[in-house]
Amino acid sequence: MKRADLEHIIRAAGNIADCRHLVIIGSQAILGSCTNPSPELTVSQEVDIYPLEAPEKADLIDGSIGEKSPFHETFGYYAHGVSPETAVLPARWRERLVPVCNENTRGVTGLCLSPADLAISKLMAGRRKDFEFVRLMLKHRLVSFDTMEALLGELPKAHLSTARSRLERCCLDASESGS
Predict the structure, then answer these.
(1) How far is the C-alpha of 104 from the C-alpha of 8, rounded, in Å?
(2) Contact (Cβ atoms closer than 8 angstroms) between residue 108 and residue 11
(3) Residues 101 and 130 in one domain
(4) Which residues make Cβ contacts (< 8 Å) with residue 170, sequence separation at least 6?
(5) Which of 37, 48, 130, 172 is 20 to 30 A from 113 in CA distance terms?
(6) What is the number of domains present in the chain?
(7) How many CA atoms lie within 13 A of 30 on its CB side?
C-alpha cells in the first residue's frame, strides 16, 4: 500500500460514514508518519479504521469498501471497519495521533497511530506477523526500544507484564537476526 492509497480510503470512508475524522489503528497507520516506508512495512491490503465521532459506523465502511467488495476488487486494497476497543493502546495515544488531511482526502482527516503507539498495539496483539512488524520498525529506526519501554507505563496494569515480556522477546529476536 502507498500513502495515496491510504488517502483514498480516508476520503471514501469519510464520505460513506458522513464524518470528518477517522482513526487508523492497524499497520498501515505507519503511512501517517512515514510517507514512503520500506515496502516490507506496507504489504497489507487493509486499513483498520473507524469514525472518531461515530464508531458504530465502522460496519457501514466495512460493508461498502471492505474485503471482497467491488472497491477492493477494483483497487487492490480495502478498509476494515473496527471498533475503538480493537487495539490495546497506551493511555495517552490520542495525544500522539498523526493527522493525514490534504487535497487527496478532500477535507476528511485520518488520525493515524504514532509509530510508538502502533508498535505497542502490535506487541499486544501478539501474533507472529505483529512481532515481525515491530522488528521491522526497529530495524528501520521508526521506533526505539526506549520509547516503547517508556510507553509501557501507560498501559493498563493487567497488560503490563505481557507487554514487557513481549517487548523484550521482540527485541531479543531482532538482535539475534542481525536487525
Answers:
(1) 7
(2) yes
(3) no
(4) 123, 131, 134, 135, 138
(5) 172
(6) 2
(7) 27
Looking at the fold, whether 170 and 131 belong to one and the same domain comes out as yes
Same-domain pairing of 33 and 106: yes
Dump strand ranges (E) for the chain.
21-24, 46-51, 78-81, 98-100, 109-112
* Cell 467488495 belongs to residue: 69
Are 29 and 67 within one domain? yes
> Model confidence over 71-114: pLDDT tens digits?
999 999 999 999 999 999 999 999 999 999 999 999 999 999 99
Q: Indicate the residue type of 12.
A: A
- Helix, strand, coil distribution of the chain in percent, nearest 5: 55, 10, 30
| Cα–Cα distance for residue pair 143/133, rounded to 1 Å | 11
154, 90 in Cβ contact below 8 A? yes
Q: What local confidence, expressed as pLDDT, does residue 117 receive?
A: 97
169-177 own/partner pairs: CB under 8 Å, 24+ apart? 169/131, 170/123, 170/131, 170/134, 170/135, 170/138, 171/138, 171/145, 173/131, 173/135, 174/135, 174/138, 174/139, 177/135
Give yes or no for a contact between 23 and 67, defined as CB atoms under 8 angstroms apart: no
**Alpha-carbon span 118 to 29, nearest angstrom:** 7
Q: Does 147 score more than 90 pLDDT? A: yes
